[in-house]
Amino acid sequence: MPSEVSTLLDVAIGSAEASIAVLLVLGFGYYAQHAGWVNDEGERQISHLCVTVFLPALLFTQIGPHATRHNLLDYGIIVVFSVFAMVVSYFVGIASRRALKSPRWTVAAFIFNNATSLPLLLLNSLEKTGTIRIIIGKHGGSVVDAVARGRTYLLIAALVGNMGRFALGPDIMGHKQDNDSGFPSGLSTTFRPVATGSETTPLLSTARIHNTASQAWPTIKDIAKRTWIWIRGALNPPLIAAIVAVTFGLISPLHHAFFNKGQPLGATVTQSIDYLGKLYTALQMFVLGSKLRSKPGNKLPILSTTILFIHRFIVMPAIMISVMYLLRSTWPSYVEQDPMLDFVLSIVGIGPPAITLSAISEMAKLDVREDGQVSRMRLSNPAGYSANIEWWRRTLSEVTARGLQPAGILVLRADTVLVDSFRWDKVGKPLGVGYALTSLSTPTTSCAASAPFIPLKRFLELPGSVYLPESGLAYRAASALVGRSLWWALQQTGLVGDDVIRETWGDFVILPNVEAAAKKVIDIQRAKGGIGPASALYNFASFRQTFGSLAAQYSGATLSETDARVLVKHLERDRGCVVVDRQADVIKFVEEGSSEREGITSVDKGILEMSVTLAKLQEQVDEIQKRIEERAEKINTLLRKKQKELALSMLRSRKELETLLKLRLGALETVQTALMKIETAAGDIAASPIMKAYETSSATLKELLADPRLQREHIDQTMESMADALADHKEVEEAIALGGVPSDPAEDDELARELQQLVEENEREAQEQESERKREEKTIADLERLTVHTPQPIAEKEREEQPTLVEA
């Protein structure tokens, strides 16, 4: 027992020594960044060299010598166990991320681990302390041989892990695997993000992506193109180096030339590559420590990290040991009997993911703080920040107006689903959506309308108009500005993460969209008119049914239930053109800006109830008529098929429907008549325009008749005076006519003779014109009687001139 405790203590001390050595290298990198020995550019270049030069060199020299046919065939169980460990970790990582809403890098942290550094350091520690003998037992051979076999097993496992992590890791840690939103594809193919090259580069591109499926491309060519794009995206320097190493290892001449001792190529080329490869581990850990200082990053998800390490160092060893025990107990001779092999298979899933994730993130070109890039633009480039915010305002408003997100056309639902819908392959999600929403939803004045985006709950609960200042709103605006600025400053120091972005998620009322929809509704209602008050009364269902598509800016979009609530609230509170009784579910349109606020009366409720009943009866009548037509078609079809019994049954059904239709039409006519009378009576009350016109005309007529000039005595006097004046005027005209000078008879005779001459002259001219017309007609008739002779050919003429022989 004391010896076992001592052995465990030696193993623990050896493992602690290896871990401390790794932490010291990280500490050196952290201090170098703090002291200014390494700047951000140098850090980036070193990290790039590690991934594109040093790591491929390390993979080539470590994998190549052991990638022989013998190892790949005899140790195939290692490949199986390595793939099994990654698959199990993948499902655990996906489940953890969806349950805890963890960052995307946690999935890669679950799947991929450093399969070389920690296991090899642990193996070296066990060799130095001599505890390796406990693992291999008495029949395990020498310690040196056991350690050599263990390194071989670990490198074969590393071969599988390295090929997997650099083939799939960039995609998993990038943006391709993060598409679990299920958002409609219409949005994601319309608005696409672009890479942020500088602070003035737009966050997204509005260029539309052409749908290749709609183009007339051959199927084979399309498949080949997609395959090549996938291969080109998956290939990277580490993966290429691993493939080259396996190829060189399997081809005997190349394996002999490059990996056997004493060969010129092995002593020169392979050795130089080995020198480069040995730089990777230390430099990568050094750069990782430097990044911890220069890039504080986001707040670490404690729960996800805890689950990750429990899975990596407790769950996975337990699973692998259990599977190994089951394999040994079930098929003892299936796997080579080697205690060192059992030990390696048990620790295949163990290893820290930090260095691996750093390498993958460099290959995937991921940003450490995506949202922080946009937030820093507020100070470093205010113009670019404002341009990006304005771009987001237009884009989100149009996305909502087109109905491309589930909340409606007036309300934006901001969450991770919305961000995922803007993803662009090989580029990723847009940056800083949370900061854009924060800026767009923060009022700049004491009026809520100064923010184009208003939280839904706040919009519905505001007691006064959004266009009027409010004391409480000023406090909220100031607290939002100060609070957001303070939180952003804390993020720059790395003291807090991006949890503030999650506070921005929620439903937002887009005020410009609401204003445009309200204008359309008011114009439609004004143009609608009506003979009575029923045309101005709605419930929420009929309001949405009537204006659902008419209020939309784009065809195909319609108001959601939430949109209808928001629009009615805006029309009631901010425009003053409707009054609402939410308890009775009544909406009544009134004159906008009217000084007298009309309330909803019991008459309005009754009229609305009858209108709803009338609409339901009309729907029933339409449905019954449709069924009667269907029965008639079926009867004709059955008669053509000579199925008289079925036709008779259908005929009875049609008769019943016709009877029901008569009842419904009677009820419909009764309700229509009653509603018409109610509307007529409602229109005849004193407050109606007709009665007001009657009252006005009556009062005006009475006022005119009360004038003294319209009294009977005054009118009689006026008429008598007018008669006297007319009589005097007639006498004057007669006197003037009698006092005229008579005309001269001689002059009258001369005028008569001159008139007779003019008459005779006109008659002569008429006779001459008639004679001329007759001569022309005669000439035309003579010309028509003339005959034109056609000349004949000479031969025919001579033949006619010859004498004709007469038969005897």
Please describe what this structure looks like.
The protein is mainly α. It has 3 domains: 2-178 and 234-364, Na+/H+ antiporter like fold; 370-514, no CATH class; 538-683, no CATH class. It contains 32 helices and 8 strands. The chain has helices at residues 2-35, 40-63, 69-74, 76-100, 105-111, 117-129, 132-136, 143-173, 185-188, 219-234, 237-250, 252-259, 264-294, 302-330, 339-346, 354-364, 370-380, 382-401, 416-421, 433-440, 456-461, 471-492, 499-504, 511-528, 540-547, 561-574, 602-640, 644-683, 689-705, 712-738, 745-785, 794-801, and strands at residues 192-193, 204-205, 411-414, 453-455, 506-510, 537-538, 578-581, 586-589. The strands form 3 sheets. Strands 3-5-4 form a 3-stranded antiparallel β-sheet. It is elongated. The chain starts with a helix and ends in a 7-residue tail after the last helix.
Offer a concise description of the structure:
By secondary structure, this protein is mainly alpha-helical. It has helices at residues 2-35, 40-63, 69-74, 76-100, 105-111, 117-129, 132-136, 143-173, 185-188, 219-234, 237-250, 252-259, 264-294, 302-330, 339-346, 354-364, 370-380, 382-401, 416-421, 433-440, 456-461, 471-492, 499-504, 511-528, 540-547, 561-574, 602-640, 644-683, 689-705, 712-738, 745-785, 794-801; strands at residues 192-193, 204-205, 411-414, 453-455, 506-510, 537-538, 578-581, 586-589.
